[in-house]
Amino acid sequence: MSxxxxxxxxxxxxxxxxxxxxxxxxxxxxxxxxxLGVKIxxxxxxxxxxxxxxxxxxxxxxxxxxxxxxxEPPRRVIAIGSCAATMGIFKGSYSMIGPIDEIVPVDxxxxxxxxxxxxxxxxxxxxxxxxxxxxxxxLETPEGFRGEPVVNSTKCIGCAACMHSCPxxxxxxxxxxxxxxxxxTHKDCICCATCEEVxxxxxxxxxxxxxxxxxxxxxxISEATVELKQCLLCGLPFTSSRQIDWxxxxxxxxxxxxxxxxxxxxxxxxICTDCRKKSxxxxxxxxxxxxxxxxxTQ
Amino acid sequence: MDDKxxxxxxxxxxxxxxxxxxxCEIACxxxxxxxxxxxxxxxxxxxxxxxxxxTFEAVNCxxxxEPICINVxxxxxxxxxxxxxxxxxxxxxxxxxxxxVYMCPLAVPFFDEERKAAAKCDFCDxxxxxxxxxxxxxxxxxxxxxxxxxxxxxxxxxx
Lengths: 298, 159
Prior knowledge:
The structure holds two protein chains of two kinds.
Chain A: E1 6-12, H1 18-28, H2 33-36, E2 38-40, E3 49-53, E4 56-57, H3 61-70, E5 76-80, H4 82-86, E6 96-98, E7 108-110, H5 117-128, E8 149-151, H6 161-165, E9 171-176, E10 179-185, H7 194-198, E11 204-206, E12 213-214, E13 221-230, E14 237-240, H8 241-254, H9 259-268, H10 273-276, H11 280-296
Parallel strand pairs in A: 1-2, 1-3, 3-5, 5-7
Antiparallel strand pairs in A: 4-6, 7-12, 8-11, 9-10, 10-13, 13-14
Helix pairs in contact in A: 1-5, 9-11
Chain B: H1 3-6, E1 9-13, H2 23-33, E2 44-47, E3 56-59, H3 68-72, E4 78-80, E5 87-89, H4 99-103, E6 110-112, E7 117-119, H5 129-132, E8 139-143, H6 144-155
């Protein structure tokens, strides 16, 4: 018999029920929950662990506060899924109040949209000391699994394609001083791998790792830093220098142009689009490049 | 240059005829976005404002024979129509890396924040709205051969 005493009360704050179905899926793993000392209880008074799915909305706010108060301390709160951590796909909805931690303190976040049952069990064993020795084979990560994304700082060209393609808005790009910081926040990530698919420089990899649970949701990030390129005319940074280098290299490979046109193109790409939109002479120079390129095909 | 490329329809601009009325920009933005927000126009008229000599220059897509935008596009979203030769962007394929925006010498494609994709001149299926609304015929649809002659005279000062 286990010495664990985990009495779980489940609370659905505004979940789409995806996470709830995954919690139900834990039963299918065949874990001897009774032997492990895990109990699902029907009343908050009997519980010591509050498991919450979904973000807080106007209907669940008061109820969540009340439920939390009914649980005797010491109590633990576990937020399951992206919505519980950041409101996920419901962000910006008129009915949403905020993520769980705005109402009650959260001890552990389990990420995913939804997280796998195995991830939830893994998180419980990690955080609550659930002893699952000898049952690890049940929790194995399947072939081709997409876990947390990791960005390779040496390969990233800072083009922001990942940020524009990310359906969950999990990727932030900030220009700070002379650097561009590409930040993958795991709290929002739904592991869909769109970023991996679109990345022109193959800098993003969705790892096999499914240890997607965090005590501090803000610290769960993967970052890359790239240098910014300054405009030749106004001196302001406009995009990452690696992006321009990548594009020039691609043109060299695919479009064999004359040295003169190449130099002009290089010069042109060092000027930000704002400056290029201002100068008539700049536009005339650019048209020269295009006319000479067109003459080549004659 | 093969015949198809020679006869490709392109928009040619004559700065001597342009009065800077910007009807082309309004027509373009209205046709593609239903708004008169000139920043949404696929072509721009630049004004020489510094010394007040009153010259204009259009920044419009040349629908190049060997487009730089297509060559830098990592997702094959940019394409040149095999029949008509028009260079267009498929916003569903576009990943928003903005390579074309930075590499096009004229910076013709721009990043559309709403679609999260590049946007550029699509030649309006052969009847460009900007040309239709150009009162002085500074913008015209001509064959690539004629356009090259005119552009050579204007920008390379030959012929």
